[in-house]
From TrEMBL:
Keyword Hydrolase recorded: yes
One BP annotation, GO: sucrose catabolic process
Lineage of the organism: Bacteria, Bacillati, Cyanobacteriota, Cyanophyceae, Nostocales
Gene Ontology terms for molecular function: endo-alpha-N-acetylgalactosaminidase activity; sucrose alpha-glucosidase activity
Organism: Nostoc piscinale CENA21
Keywords associated with the record: Carbohydrate metabolism, Glycosidase, Hydrolase
Family designation: Belongs to the glycosyl hydrolase 100 family.
Listed name of the protein: beta-fructofuranosidase
Length: 471
């Protein structure tokens, strides 16, 4: 890098750190989180809230910097917002749930936290991912501080146990995956992802791995047994039923249908004509593959969803071979998946009738915009972590190179539009905190590869699960 370029990079980083500092939310004089965006728009909607999922990138950065207090305060305060009792009233949040977001409000000179469990959210979407992110952040905190005692406090053990009970409860289906409504995760609007979306399954798997380590010394037998039973089932289910590569596509293409009983090979009765196999056969490189977006009854969503695929690599939900194949695909289809701004939230976009039916004609989710295949800079840190885990660091370096100057010049937008991410998102906020934190975190991961340990897991070893506490 030339001297001039180094000066620019230094300027970008300095600004990003300052903006992150400015995004910190204070509650009764203590830092407790970061605001979603600091855009000066007249209508902040809920972008002045601290979102649990958005805070994950900031939390990891604060932990890397040794600023443990912010993350500790965040964990303590959000835990207090978790309902501990089940009221038989449909409008009260379920026991164990963690809100999507919260905000500090003042009344009569007294500050308190106002939480949103989806009851204020646009379209009233349920935040399933928040409780999973909460455990993942807690696990990272314990790893960074080596303070296992923090998580062993009774109120934290109760909090983790309530989340596990909520997730492990038997429901109306018999599947190791988690059944959720549409818009239950980062994709916070209807986009045809109801059922068993990959993002939730990857977060669920990560939260189970994290909870397994945090609960281990507490002796909560039933839950620990439940986690140990679920982990291998979930892992096998995802590795087998979600996997798509040329070999698998050949099998799916010639699937028998309407099979009944134990000997069925096409377990979910996927009709081959529902799969865009011609497009996939040209798009998939020989050595590439990925995990599908969703698998359910007669449903195989073949869209590529980045967060779920990258998280599966980071946490060894995908096998080593599959992880390499996913990275091969990203490398081979760089233009489609990274384009000019890392990286697409999903690919390809829903268009025409599909767009209308699956989004409900949502103008924010028109093809190649926002959740419908927009480019989201926050995904840069997931890409970097996955690159590191698979030893493909140059891919991350190239992606960072693409993003940094543009993000700075464009004032840190929330997302970009267009097939290649050339346009600043039509309704994108500027000074979006997880965009800023995403770039900084990607750089910190490159600078010190050991930071990856905060958010990654080695292959699950069921045999030694009881000694898994390597915190
Ligand atoms: C959007 C995103 C959601 C994010 C929120 C705040 O609604 O879909 O994932 O948490 O903005 O940034």
């Amino acid at each position: 890098m030339s001297r001039k370029e180094l000066v620019i990079v230094d300027k970008i980083e300095k600004q990003a750190w300052q903006l992150l500092e400015d995004a910190i939310v204070y509650y009764q004089g203590r830092p407790i989180g970061t605001v979603a965006a600091k855009d000066s728009l007249e209508f902040p909607l809920n972008y002045d809230h601290c979102f649990i999922r958005d805070f994950a990138a900031s939390a990891l950065l604060f932990l890397i910097q040794g600023r443990y207090d912010i993350v500790r305060n965040f964990l303590e305060e959000t835990l207090k917002l978790q309902p501990k009792k089940q009221l038989l009233d449909a409008y009260t949040p379920t026991k164990g749930l963690i809100p999507a977001s919260f905000k500090v409000v003042s009344n009569n000179n007294k500050e308190y936290l106002e939480a949103d469990f989806g009851e204020h959210a646009i379209a009233r979407v349920t935040p399933v991912d928040s409780c999973l992110w909460w455990i993942i952040i807690l696990h990272a905190y314990v790893k960074a501080t080596k303070d296992l005692k923090f998580a062993l406090q009774p109120e934290f053990q109760e909090g983790i146990a309530l989340i596990m009970e909520l997730c492990l409860a038997t429901r109306f289906d018999m599947s190791p995956t988690l059944l959720v409504p549409d818009g239950a995760c980062m994709i916070h609007r209807r986009l045809g992802i109801y059922g068993y979306p990959l993002e939730i399954q990857a977060l669920f798997y990560t939260a189970l791995r994290a909870a397994r380590q945090l609960l281990i010394c507490a002796g909560d037998e039933d839950i620990v047994i439940g986690i140990d039973n679920r982990l291998p089932l979930l892992q096998n289910h995802i590795r087998y039923h979600y996997w798509i590569d040329i070999k698998r596509l050949n099998i799916i293409y010639r699937f028998k249908v309407e099979e009944y009983g134990q000997s069925a090979t096409n377990l979910f009765n996927i009709y081959p004509d529902s799969i865009p196999y011609a497009d996939l056969a040209t798009w998939l490189p020989k050595n590439g593959g990925y995990l599908a977006g969703n698998v359910g009854p007669s449903q195989l969503d073949t869209r590529f969803f980045s967060l779920g695929n990258l998280m599966s690599i980071m946490t060894s939900l995908a096998s080593e071979q599959q992880s390499q194949a996913i990275m091969n695909l990203i490398e081979a289809q760089w233009e489609d998946l990274i384009g000019t701004m890392p990286m697409k939230i999903c690919f390809p976009a829903l268009e025409k009738a599909e767009y209308k039916i699956f989004t409900g004609c949502d103008p924010k989710n028109i093809p190649w915009s926002y959740h419908n295949a927009g480019n989201w800079p926050v995904l840069l840190w997931f890409l970097t972590a996955a690159s590191q885990k698979t030893g493909r660091i140059n891919m991350a370096k190239n992606a960072i190179e693409l993003a940094q100057t543009r993000l700075f010049e464009d004032e840190w937008p929330e997302y970009y539009d267009g097939a290649r991410g050339m346009l600043i998102g039509r309704a994108a906020r500027r000074y979006q905190t997880w965009t800023i934190a995403g770039l900084l975190l990607a750089k910190e991961l490159i600078r010190n590869p050991s930071n990856l340990e905060l958010c990654s897991f080695a292959e699950f070893d069921g045999e030694n699960a009881s000694q898994a506490c390597d915190l």
